Amino acid sequence: MMWEVPVGLENEAARLRRGDPAAFEALLERYQNRLYRYLLRMVREPATAEDLFQQTWLRVAEKIRSYNPQRSFEAWLFSVARNLAIDHLRRYKPESLDEPLATGETRADQLVGAGPTALEGVIVRERSSRLAATLGELPVIYREVLSLRFEEEMKLEEIAEVLGTPLSTVKTRLRRSLEQLRRRLEARGSASEWQV
Amino acid sequence: MKEHDKVRELLTLSAAGTLDSSEQQMVERHLAECAECARELEGWNALAGGLRRLPTPRPSAALVERTRTLMVKHLAAEAERRWDLGLLVFAVLFAWTLTLAGWPIARLLTSGAAAWLDMSFRQAWLGYAAYTAVGWVSAGVAAVILGLRHRTSRRMA
């Protein structure tokens, strides 16, 4: 499938193919937060995410000549990161790809003494924190599809390219991941927070 | 399958903003008449909103700097490798050019001198061998220089 590639991005990717360090600087600047967030959602451990972050950029430099400029650089970059993360998970956690992590504790003590506005902020952060923790408990195939859709705001076609799966599989995974997330929130008694 | 059940299955993807226009229209038509599905979608929308608003964990400045340094080194090494490869290709082409074209050109340019020196065609193989040797020795010298350069740069890295 062909993509409409933003002109600036196209130039940067083409310049990186020619080995231009300035192009790398621009791409790093553009994608550093998103790429790190995606890797952290995948592997859940900051130290591992940091290691994979570096490995991803090195792999990008090594493989940039095999990148087709007609395709989405973003999808290609995330598929490189995904392959490294999946390799890591297979190598180091072969038995526990779907194993839930221990959830974080609440920070109820922070609520004490907080004013109304600060309190609202803390409540929002608490809800986000619980949601992030529950998201972290999902199997990796669900975590990644949720992260790519809701955090990276990728289209289904781009997600399919990153995952290397048919569009129908992406739709099914997206639906099941939301359902499973909601079920887990309900089991924790947190689902009502996400009801209007 | 009843429309209600069908729409029910589409609500998650609607909240994810991934339905095509005909599916979205069907959902909207049904929601106008079905309060149960409308409530259900509100729940999915709230969850989707929560996912979109999750805080973004950022890489540390030290990690970004380490990555930048690593990449600059890698790109420089890659550029040098390409330059070395270009030089090697040039040296090989130069050697083959000398090998193939050297003797005829020398004969052409020095036909008078060759006649004066009484160089006959039978001696051609000597000249040809000499030019071949010059070509390949040049390439060999280039290869040694490249090797030494590479070793020095690796020692300094």
Question: Could you explain the architecture of this structure?
Answer:
- The complex is a heterodimer of chains A (about 200) and B (about 160).
- Chain A is an all-alpha fold.
- In chain A, about 70% of the residues lie in helices and about 0% in strands.
- Chain A is globular, with a radius of gyration of 19 Å.
- In chain B, α1 crosses α2 (about 20-30), α1 runs parallel beside α3 and α4 packs antiparallel against α6.
- Chain B starts with a helix and ends with a helix.
- The interface of A and B includes residues 33, 54, 128 and 155 of A.
Order of helices and strands of chain B: HHHHHH
Radius of gyration of chain B: 38 Å
Please provide the count of β strands of chain A.
Answer: 0
Shape call of chain B: elongated
Q: What count of helical segments of chain A does DSSP give?
A: 9
Beta fraction of the residues of chain A? Answer: under 5%
Termini separation of chain B (Å)? 68 Å
Secondary-structure element sequence of chain A?
A: HHHHHHHHH
Identify the quaternary structure here.
heterodimer
Q: Kindly provide the radius of gyration of chain A, computed on alpha-carbon positions and rounded to a whole number of angstroms.
A: 19 Å
Task: Please count the helical segments of chain B.
Answer: 6
Helical content of chain A (DSSP H or I, runs of 4+): over 70%
Rounded to the nearest angstrom, the distance between the terminal CA atoms of chain A is 39 Å
Mean of residue pLDDT values of chain A = 80
